[in-house]
Amino acid sequence: MAVPILxxxxxxxxxxxSIAKWCKNIGxxxxxxxxxxxxxxDKATMEIEAVDEGILEKILYNDGDEGITVNxxxxxxxxxxxxxxxxxxxxxxxxxxxxxxxxxEVEDENKVIRNDINVIDEVVEGKDIDKTVSExxxxxxxxxxxxxxxxxxxxxxxxxxxxxxxxxxxxxxxGSGPRGRIIKKxxxxxxxxxxxxxxxxxxxxxxxxxxxxRKIIAERLSLSKQEIPHFYLxxxxxxxxxxxxxxxxxxxxxxxxxxxxxxxIIKALSLALIKVPEANCxxxxxxxxxFSSVDISVAVAVNDGLxxxxxxxxxCLNISEISLIMKDYISLAKVGKLMPKDYEGGNFSISxxxxxxxxxxxxxxxxxxxxxxxxxxxxxxxxxxxxxxRLSNVMSCQLSGDHRAIDGAVGAKxxxxxxxxxxxxxxxLV
Length: 430
Known about the structure:
Layout lengths: L2 E4 L9 E7 L6 E2 L4 E6 L4 E5 L4 E6 L8 E2 L3 E6 L5 H10 L8 E6 L3 E5 L3 E6 L2 E6 L3 H9 L12 H10 L21 H14 L10 H16 L2 E9 L1 H10 L11 H15 L5 E3 L4 E3 L5 E3 L1 E3 L2 E3 L2 E2 L7 H16 L5 H4 L4 E5 L18 E15 L2 E15 L5 H16 L7
Parallel strand pairs: 16-20, 20-21
Antiparallel strand pairs: 1-8, 2-4, 2-7, 3-6, 4-5, 6-8, 9-10, 10-11, 11-12, 13-22, 14-15, 16-19, 17-18, 21-22
Helix pairs in contact: 7-8, 7-10
């Protein structure tokens, strides 16, 4: 006897589904277990197996048809012995008329395209034209010249999910499904392209064992931020005179002998600490220690972190001596030859990122020191000088201070002295 095939309920919340693809054609023999159709819901596409044996007699919906209510008739299987009446009884039971039209695509004031299983009726300005189903494509093509199609782009649920998941632009994609509907196979090329692109983009993460240096840096700086109450003060220094003085210092010297901006900053900070000795200190458990010497730690970047070699008694050295010591330290640091005595101790630190074109930054104090001076790049900026605005070379300097040992006023005084020395480099000579 004839067997109805209904839109299945694939989940407790499913109320309607769509035909993704018929896997059997009208007239095909069907056996139990054969995949007969693929059904799309908003969440998945599932293959539906035939339960009964027979010949596929009727298909009531095309590939891509959407919004089909659960338990609606979608196809009919018949046995070779079934009569036309038995087929008609199933159609009648599900209120399907043999030649019932199903409106499927475009409808406006002048044009209507209707399609059922066997016939397309075209109504153009009152003229009815019957076409057989084999002429469907040409009828729709001819109509497209006359019909103003003001409708949404038709996309199958599966294709829609793939478009969203793969961030596909559908502009220019021509749907090959019924009535130009975009279906999965229309996206295959772009999906493969995206997959290949993703394969090229995806790289395995690199796992690197933490070195002893990084562990020490992590421990010390974590401790610093957890236990030291940092405060920050910033000052902009006009360094026009400094650049002129440096140029004169380097006149006639080779590259190995030339003075760097950083060398001059070390000397300037050491002299500022001499003038503000209350900033040259460290916080202890029961006391604050004020240092008699000025030992400046200078951050030097290496491959796996940084060293802070110490320029001891920097206030007593001239700039050329500081420059030679720093060059030796940098060379040793690059090849990992610094000795502990070279970087242990220090009263105050300098971290200079000006060579990386950083305007300004906040540095973390290197405990147990009481402060660190962060140096930014020298920028050409408009500055008001003696009631006149002019372009000058400006360097941003930010002090990070340990508020347990240094008050804000002391930090401000230190920065003020440093600024005065940097802007008037001749003071480093007297």
